[in-house]
Amino acid sequence: MVSDRCKMIVKSELLKLGLHYVMVDIGEVEIMETLSAEQQENLNSNLRKTGLLLISDKKSILLEKIKNIIIDLVYYAEKPPKTNFSDYLSEKLNYDYTYMANLFSETQNTSIEQYIINLKIERVKELLIYDELNLTEIAYKMHYSSLSHLSSQFKKITGLTPSYYKRLRNNRRKPIENV
User: Fold this and answer.
1) For 101-118, b where at least 16 C-beta lie within 10 A, e where not — what string?
2) pLDDT digits (tens, 9 = 90+) for 36-59
3) What is the CATH class of 115-178?
4) 39: how many CB neighbours lie within 10 A of its CB?
């Protein structure tokens, strides 16, 4: 789950199956009942129809938590973490960063760092399309050290300058789950 809409879908599917939840958050659900195999299969089947998956193995859960922390930082954090990202992630999840980085790379075919960059560029594309902030304001909002750093990273990933991208009529963004 990467958005409030996903949370609404999960809540709805739980209620349809007569299940009671304690908490539904991005990437996590706590259910009051112990699910039978049949209930788990029904929930998984219903979620798959909406493009969501029920994840129950520990490695997959950890991967989703890593992604959700990154999404939260890129999309919603007013300020970057006070420590470096690897320490921040280790503190939040109580895992060694090297373990998480290796797991992420093995399963996602990209590094955590590259995932962050790709996600930030998708967010910059979104902000460019909204046309509410100028490039300097976007660089500041996205915690880039400078406008030139944002521009060079944007061009490296997209092949276009941010200004040129903004002028394009067919701006195609990737959904978060495809980054």
Assistant:
1) bebbeeeeeeebeebbbb
2) 888 888 888 988 898 887 777 888
3) mainly alpha
4) 15
